[in-house]
Write a structure and sequence with these properties.
The protein is built from 10 helices and no strands. The protein is mainly alpha-helical. Helix 1 packs parallel to helix 10. It is 64% helix and 0% strand. The radius of gyration is 21 Å and the shape is globular.
Length: 259
């Protein structure tokens, strides 16, 4: 079965590569329709590269870690596809919230006593990020954090959500089959180093674990195929006839980005 699936994966990789040859990559995300097309194209390039990596690593169980990332990408695309007018813009604009956080963390590190970095560049990056967040940040306000900041008297608190989308595991459960959700959870066991993953790698009559079990490798290849098929489907699909409410559902504070 693995040999057959590998041959099919090669064919699907070639198909998606041909589709992408006909699409231009743009980094503009101003107009709603433009944002969806560009998000889809960029994620398709990422998924294609991931699939090629799974093909190259098909002799190793680590291919499942890449397949896990592919499932998360497809989950985000399908979530954005439900509201092509607003969610791709949210995906792009949320970078401003993250950029402020990252710049402040970097500045805090560079300002520690004894360090000699020139922090002017970091301050400039923070200034740019703050200006962009001032423009789009209202879309990502977490009202619970706003109340907490007011209660504590914090003027410059981070009152923004942790992510622009619902939790990934919830999105995958919503859009994928139970079998694919099961594989995502199995890949997550390896990703997070859970004890269950190591116990499943135990080999009979051996004191050494086997992280390259053939069924694990076959599962990664199968998931790569599922994700490439999803890309082809999204390229051909019209906008959904009915959209959910615009914007995003703010996740609970501290919600995990992963499953």
């Amino acid at each position: 079965f693995l040999r057959r699936d590998l041959a099919e994966l090669r064919e699907r990789i070639d198909q998606v590569a041909r589709l992408l040859d006909q699409r231009e990559v743009s980094w503009a995300f101003k107009a709603p329709g433009e944002a969806w097309n560009n998000m889809l194209t960029l994620f398709a390039h990422k998924t294609l590269q991931n699939a090629r990596s799974v093909l190259e690593l098909s002799h190793y169980g680590d291919a499942g870690l890449i397949a896990r990332s592919m499932l998360e990408s497809i989950a985000l695309l399908r979530y954005a596809n439900e509201d092509r007018e607003s969610r791709p813009l949210l995906w792009s604009e949320f970078d401003a919230v993250q950029a402020v956080r990252e710049s402040r963390e970097r500045l805090e590190f560079e300002e520690r006593p004894g360090r000699e970095e020139d922090i002017a560049e970091t301050r400039e990056l923070l200034s740019i990020a703050l200006a962009e967040r001032a423009r789009v940040g209202h879309k990502f306000i977490d009202q619970k954090r706003v109340k907490e900041a007011k209660k504590k008297g914090e003027i410059d608190a981070d009152v923004y959500v942790n992510q622009w989308h619902e939790p990934i595991s919830r999105l995958i459960a919503k859009h994928q089959s139970p079998a694919t959700l099961f594989l995502y959870r199995r890949f997550s066991e390896a990703h997070h180093g859970r004890a269950r993953h190591f116990s499943k790698a135990r080999r009979p009559r051996s004191d050494r674990p086997d992280f390259n079990r053939v069924e694990w490798r076959a599962q990664a290849v199968n998931v790569a195929l599922v994700c490439l098929n999803a890309i082809v489907f999204l390229f051909d699909s019209p906008p959904p006839s009915r959209h959910p409410p615009s914007g995003h559902a703010a996740p609970a504070k501290g919600a995990s980005r992963h499953g």
